[in-house]
Specification:
The structure holds two protein chains of two kinds.
Chain A (H helix, E strand, L loop, with lengths): L5 E12 L2 E13 L4 E5 L6 H9 L6 E4 L2 E4 L2 E2 L5 H7 L4 E4 L13 H12 L4 H14 L5 H4 L9 H13 L5 E5 L7 H18 L2 E6 L2 H7 L2 E6 L2 E7 H6 L4 H9 L4 E2 L5 E2 L41 E4 L2 E3 L9 H4 L4
Parallel strand pairs in A: 3-9, 3-10, 7-8, 8-9
Antiparallel strand pairs in A: 1-2, 1-4, 1-5, 5-6, 10-11, 11-15, 12-13, 14-15
Chain B lengths: L5 E14 L10 E14 L3 E5 L6 H8 L7 E6 L2 E2 L5 H8 L2 E4 L13 H11 L6 H14 L16 H13 L5 E5 L7 H18 L2 E5 L3 H7 L2 E6 L2 E7 H6 L4 H9 L5 H6 L30 H5 L5 E2 L5 E2 L6
Parallel strand pairs in B: 3-8, 3-9, 6-7, 7-8
Antiparallel strand pairs in B: 1-2, 1-4, 4-5, 9-10, 10-12, 11-12
The chains are: A alpha/beta, B alpha/beta.
Chain lengths: 338, 328
């Protein structure tokens, strides 16, 4: 039995499409401990959402998921059948999706949708479920929950719908909450409200949270540990401070330099720095490069980078990066600033 | 900056839409005040950033300036000439000086046209080229300017990534050598690493050609990066305007303060140090806005005065204007 709450080893997900096979996730190891706020960051198409959907077994039939190990709370998820997975989803693992406009069913009231998991998983009677649903709505900060429970999703704003989604995900007291870009569709002031709420609930219910996002700002605010993905592989993982201040992978470095971080001078005056974008665009996963997926855009790329992907190397405790520059023989190349 | 003359002047701009209400017939129609009494000016060669949450009217301001809508009231002055009431025909010569870059690079390019046709179309419409050779030459030049290659010219939009499509959109806007470009959320549909590429291109062109931008965005860190002057909108009203450094260091409107404190900073130490001012509730419906100051329902400092009338945009010195009775 593993010590982690969720542990994945060598996860690979391929999609069969009309044009060929897309290798969306190409062998990643991942773990989540209890009480952790893990952030997975990467650009669109890097495989961050597919990783989570693969673990939950929520992908369509054209997806082939393989892993050496996929364990949740001591259970081997690879061996579980669909019926057992259904018991897990929404009960022990809660999920929140990006778009609060489409992830609620427009034909049912909020109350019905909130009571469904309670009746199904917790075997609550209708009356008990309703009481619990009202309580959950109050916890997520919705005013007049007795009235709101009979409303339909279209009667609510985007921020409120996302609160309802969180209430549904949290109502069975899950061990892990997976949030896939929960605030991307929302305005900044509403985003701040939702992030605050997620942090509050994490403490209150001592849930582990996996936050999938492309926004480094959101990561910096709430996460304790960060995984950086690119081209279906993990590029770097470490604590929040290790990723932001002791950056080891050129891709992570590139991401951090792409967002304006105006330097603050001593007298409080801001100096504008020119943005350093990452040139080029992400690789085509239909035909992924043989070497490091980032090599084509990397300013430090060496010959070996195009020949084989680098293994994740431990830099310091809890901090790993997959880059050939970390190889002992690459010291000379590392100092080369382009 | 004051020595430069304004290229765009907007005075008391109003844009109301008539919207179908709950019943039938004309009586049930309601008025949506998307933009209500907005005034600002943009000096030549500078960028004016317009920020605010969705539905605050920032896109409508951009579109109304380009006369894609007929304004309900107010005045738009371009390069010293009042263009508010020009007919479509009279306005046509001005079109080539005023262009737009759109938010969604997927829906703003015609999927059935090649890059050559997309970028060349404005050249032909405005009759700026006399022969096909001249047109092809100019298209090639534009394609190179935005960092694309010769062999991209005869391809279709679906063959490009989001960032490349946005480059095509920029090339199309630049084709007529405009003086003024409305950039309507030009980077919000792009990945982080690509956003910086597009912003850098826009900045380079401004330096080279002296372009004037209206940069509409909800991304405060990018607005701070690219703008010279910034306006903050809330529910159709401009609530605060100032030069960029002044605004970010000396924000006086309660809404500007909470908006900026809510924006995530990609720096864990700063994020931990900064205090977030959380706003209660949501933006009210623009169909049924609160009386007086539209922000008062979410404002911690609201008084009775705020409910009575909309506070006027007052100058507080340093070229800084705020619309608030209880400014901070």
């Amino acid at each position: 039995m593993s010590e982690h709450l969720l542990e994945v080893k060598n996860l690979q997900t391929n999609f069969a499409t009309g044009a060929g096979i897309v290798q969306a996730v190409r062998g990643i190891d991942l773990y989540v401990d209890s009480g952790e706020f893990l952030g997975i960051v990467g650009e669109s198409g890097c495989g961050k959402s597919v990783t989570m959907l693969s673990i939950m077994r929520l992908l369509a039939d054209n997806a082939a998921v393989r892993a050496d190990k996929l364990e949740f709370n001591g259970k081997d998820l690879l061996a579980e059948n669909e019926k057992a997975m259904k018991k897990l989803r929404g009960n022990e693992i809660g999920m929140i999706f990006q778009d609060p406009m489409t992830s609620l069913n427009p034909l049912y009231t909020v109350g019905t949708q909130l009571m469904e998991p309670l009746k199904l998983h917790q075997k609550l009677k209708k009356k008990e479920a309703k009481e619990k649903a009202i309580e959950m709505l109050r916890i997520v900060g919705i005013n007049e929950p007795e009235k709101r429970i009979n409303q339909y999703p279209h009667e609510m704003s985007g921020g409120m719908r996302q609160r309802v989604m969180i209430a549904i995900a949290m109502c069975c007291d899950p061990k892990i909450l997976i949030a896939d870009e929960p605030t991307t569709a929302l305005d900044v002031t509403i985003q701040a409200q939702i992030m605050e709420l997620m942090q509050e609930l994490k403490e209150k219910f001592s849930t582990s949270v996996i936050l999938i996002t492309h926004d480094l700002g959101v990561i910096a605010q709430v996460c304790t540990r960060v995984v950086v993905m690119y081209g279906g592989l993990i590029m770097e993982e470490g604590s929040l401070d290790q990723i932001f201040y002791e950056t080891k992978h050129p891709y992570t470095q590139g991401l951090l330099e792409s967002v304006p971080r105006d330097a603050e001078l001593e007298d409080g005056v801001y100096e504008k720095q020119k943005l350093k974008p990452i040139p080029g665009s992400p690789p085509d996963l239909m035909n992924p490069p043989k070497g490091c997926p980032f090599a084509a855009r990397c300013r430090y790329a060496m010959r070996i980078c195009n020949m084989a992907p680098a293994e994740l190397t431990t830099v310091s405790e809890g901090h790993r990066a997959a880059c050939w520059l970390l190889h002992p023989q690459a010291a000379a190349a590392r100092d080369k600033e382009v | 900056m004051e020595d430069k003359r304004p290229l765009i002047e907007v005075q008391g701009l109003k844009m109301y839409f008539s919207i179908a209400g709950k019943g039938f017939g004309k009586k049930s129609r309601q008025t949506l005040k998307a933009v209500d009494d907005v005034s600002f000016s943009i000096p030549e060669g500078t960028t004016f950033g317009l920020v605010g949450e969705s539905g605050c009217g920032k896109t409508t301001v951009g579109r109304t300036i380009l006369k894609l809508y007929k304004p309900t009231g107010g005045k738009i002055v371009f390069d010293g000439k009042d263009i508010t009431d020009l007919s479509e025909k009279e306005f046509s010569p001005y079109r080539k000086d005023m262009q737009m870059i759109f938010q969604d690079p997927y829906s703003s390019l015609n999927p059935r046209q090649t890059v050559n046709e997309i970028i060349g179309a404005p050249l032909s419409v405005q009759k700026l080229v006399s022969s096909k050779e001249e047109r092809d030459e100019r298209v090639r030049e534009l394609v190179h300017m935005v960092g694309l290659k010769d062999d991209h010219i005869n391809r279709y939009p679906h063959e490009f990534s989001g960032g490349q499509r946005q480059r095509i959109g920029i090339a199309r806007a630049l084709a007529l050598r405009p003086k003024f470009i409305v950039c309507d959320e030009p980077i919000s549909a792009l990945d982080v690493s690509i956003q910086a590429q597009v912003v850098n291109i826009l900045e380079e062109f401004q330096e080279e050609m002296g372009l004037t931008y209206l940069f509409i965005s909800h991304d405060l860190s990018m607005v701070r990066h690219i703008s010279h002057r910034v306006g903050v909108m809330y529910l159709g009203h401009l609530v605060e305007v100032a030069d960029v450094a002044e605004l970010f260091e000396n924000k006086r409107h309660p809404y500007t303060q909470s908006l900026m404190s809510a924006a995530p900073v990609a720096d864990p130490k700063k994020a931990a140090a900064s205090k977030r001012i959380l706003l209660e509730g949501d933006v009210p419906s623009p169909m049924n806005p609160p009386s007086g100051c539209p922000f008062r329902t979410r404002c911690r400092y609201a008084t009775e005065e705020c409910a009575a009338a909309m506070p006027p945009l007052r100058d507080i010195g340093n070229n800084h204007q705020v619309a608030c009775y209880n400014m901070l």
